[in-house]
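Q: How do we represent a protein-ligand complex in a form that can be generated token by token?
A: Start from the inputs.
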Amino acid sequence: MKPDLPVWRSLLYVPVNVEKYVGKAHLRGADCIQLDLEDSVPAAQKDEARRLVPAAAARVRRGGADVVVRINSPLEMACKDLEFCVDENVEGVAVTKTQDPSYIQKIDKMVGELEARRGLRPGRTRLIAMIETPAAFFQMPAIALASARLAAMNIGGEDFALENGMEPTEETLLMPKQQMIFAARAAGLMPLGFIASVAAFGDREAFARMVRRSRQFGFMGAGCIHPDQVPVVNREYSPSAEEAAYARRVIEENARAEAAGRASFAIDGKMIDVPVVERARRLLARLAAIGAREEKKRAVSV
Ligand code: COA
Ligand code: MG
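Then emit the structure tokens for the protein with coenzyme A bound:
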């Protein structure tokens, strides 16, 4: 993983033109608010919507969340959006309909120019590459390496299914999403999303089960369309107390084994060696990063 990645377990989609959503977004507990300029904003309102971004970004981050703006495609539209998105209150831009590595490089260049013009720290604006077409699917490994700004990658399930003439079911999306995870990880990026589509948010228990299963595949965070999803996603995309306790035990017993000249040993009838110890270390590092994110949210909410 790249060393400086943020903790974005839950990225709550907020259509920037819907004032009642923007107004309370900071109270929903999301790690990141994803202001949307794309599919949840009607075409006739795009010009007006992008002008709302700077003020909305300042408001939705009051609860300690980061802010990402989901921009439109193609490049002409993206360019207009970026003018309002490269901002001191925006940590990232989600690039819809990423076509190939050169598309990301063009966005990277525009963002860099805007950062320079506005006196923002070079590179502060991160990118999320959204894979939504079959052509982009076959270029995922190169896309993931296209810019140092890239922090994450995901597959826009509904659009991807549409472009492939398939239904967006868990079964049909599993293969492409799993390949996306490998492409993202190979470049040190966070894979975002769920194993199934996010559109069905009615059944809470089923949703929690689906998110738990998604983490087993390696997803680190996901877009939420409804505030009710946020606490579930924050919980399920965090190590559980049991997992943390077990990881601590692995580290302790490993230190003891090392002192005795051993790199492999057993806990409760299970073999522990290097990758298991490393997984335990990473789990505890992730837990610490999540703790810092939660602390930041608590600090501003009092
Ligand atoms: N962001 C912030 N607040 C939201 C929200 C969102 N995405 N979705 C709902 N809310 C708020 C409502 O304003 C309401 O607040 P209140 O009770 O404090 O007044 C509360 O959450 C409950 O809303 P509810 O009535 O259950 O939802 P709904 O039926 O009005 O809307 C959706 C359901 C799916 C239409 C709506 O959640 C939505 O538009 N989500 C965003 C979709 C999106 O961005 N899609 C693009 C990315 S895939
Ligand atoms: Mg879309």
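The longest helix spans residues 274-301. The chain has a mean pLDDT of 96.
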